[in-house]
Specification:
There is one protein chain. By secondary structure, this protein is of the alpha+beta class. It contains three helices and twelve strands, in the order αββββββββααββββ. The strands form four sheets. Strands 1, 4, 7 and 8 form a four-stranded mixed sheet that branches. A four-stranded antiparallel sheet has the order 3-2-5-6, with no helix packed on it. A two-stranded antiparallel ribbon has the order 9-10.
Length: 194
């Protein structure tokens, strides 16, 4: 009999703390709706002073935020084109607290932006893309030869003795130095003009 009591007391002393453990976290749930009572999908619900929050994804505007340490918090509800709402809430441990908000429409006015163009975006005479290197740019680089200078341009890939420019074949590209074509017209290779 004494052994049974001793065994029972050991069991209770070891496992009682597990059963008596109380959580320190609470749950916040609620609904975010507009002035017509429709759920505001995409609204943000933030628990200020913590990293906890949620984006509303439910078509009815319902949300749930878990694992919030019990205490008093300000809950911020906001959405694009709506006026933000802040509510104070007291969360208790092991309890679910309900809080809902109605977000009113808010007109957003920004200053007018005027864009003025001073030159034509597309030249009627230009065919394809033209890149020009000036003498100072060439002498300030550590490259030698026309091939290495041309390969500095965006979209240019060295292909044996010619270039693939933005996916074009080597026979479809033309490279000129001082107005003189230096690519072979038939093969696209660098060399004497054909």
């Amino acid at each position: 009999m004494n052994k049974k009591i001793l065994l029972l007391s050991v069991f209770v002393s070891l496992f009682f703390p597990l059963f008596s453990y109380a959580s320190i976290y609470g749950v916040l749930q609620g609904k975010v709706v507009d002035s017509e009572g429709k759920g505001v999908i995409g609204a943000t619900v933030l628990v200020r002073g913590t990293t906890r929050g949620v984006n509303v994804r439910d078509k009815n505007g319902e949300f749930t935020i878990t694992n919030i340490v019990a205490g008093e918090y300000e809950i911020e509800f906001r959405a694009v084109g709506k006026r933000s709402v802040i509510k104070k809430v007291r969360l208790s441990a092991d309890e679910t607290t309900d809080v809902s908000a109605v977000l009113e429409d808010e007109a957003v006015m920004k200053e007018t932006v005027v864009i003025t163009a001073e030159r034509q975006l597309v030249s009627k005479d230009a065919i394809g893309k033209q890149t020009t290197f000036v003498g100072d740019e060439i002498t300030s680089t550590s490259r030698e030869g026309i091939n290495s200078i041309v390969s500095l341009s965006a979209g240019v890939r060295d292909a044996n003795n010619g270039f693939n420019i933005r996916g074009a074949r080597t026979s479809e590209t033309q490279i000129r130095v001082d107005g003189m074509d230096i690519t072979n017209r038939f093969t696209g290779d660098m060399g004497l003009g054909g």
